[in-house]
Amino acid sequence: MDKKKIPRQKMSVQDPKERIKNFSSVALGYSKEQAVLEAKRCLQCKKPVCIAGCPVEIDIPAFVKKIAEEDFASAAKILKDKNNLPAICGRVCPQETQCEIKCVLAKKYEPVAIGRLERFAADWEMEHACNVKSVMCNGKTKEQKADSNISHSTLNIKHHRIAVIGSGPAGLTCGADLTKMGYNVTIFESLHETGGVLMYGIPEFRLPKKIVKEEIDYIKSLGVDIKTN
User: Fold this and answer.
1) Which tens digits make up the pLDDT trace of 40-55?
2) How confident is the model at residue 158, as a pLDDT?
3) Which InterPro entries does the entry link to (predicted)?
4) Which residue of 107, 181, 186, 199 pairs with 195 in a disulfide if CB–CB is 3.0 to 4.6 A?
């Protein structure tokens, strides 16, 4: 199969006649079949410049390859190695001016839909209860998955306590990364809801609050303590 001849997959959207009646998500995401086909467009470049276009340097070819192989759990794990908020970033990150603009296919064709694939993998993980307490996912409970995420730091736990001010995307990411490094982190939020701009600045039809809360629950599962006002 000539990968360059596979058209970029269009994402399903809510019908305009219906969306004017609600505040639900407009973009509905990829189906499994669409995601796998889109992932197969990736050329798996020896020098993947798309990674340089990603602010957190996700191993884009690796997670895309896992989607092409229908190993969605591994794709989600690769994403979370560098990005603690993949379901959010897959929806609101400006990939078209970052990783996707670097895609080699973009020179003559349309770039791989990296953001949509990120969203698919993250949503798949949520839908299959990988981060839900007491539910097994690939043989591991939530607690076991959290332990495996920070196993590299538990052998050298740092007893310093760190306070992070603000629970917006920067604060959440900082708290999660520091916890993975072994620090004891508490995030302090002045408002009554965690999430900052994710909760208060982005409308529901663009970023559902349910998705934000799921991502926050994952960060809490790592051991981050969050205190609201």
Assistant:
1) 999 999 999 999 999 9
2) 67
3) DPD_II (IPR028261), FAD/NAD-bd_sf (IPR036188), Helical_ferredxn (IPR009051)
4) 199
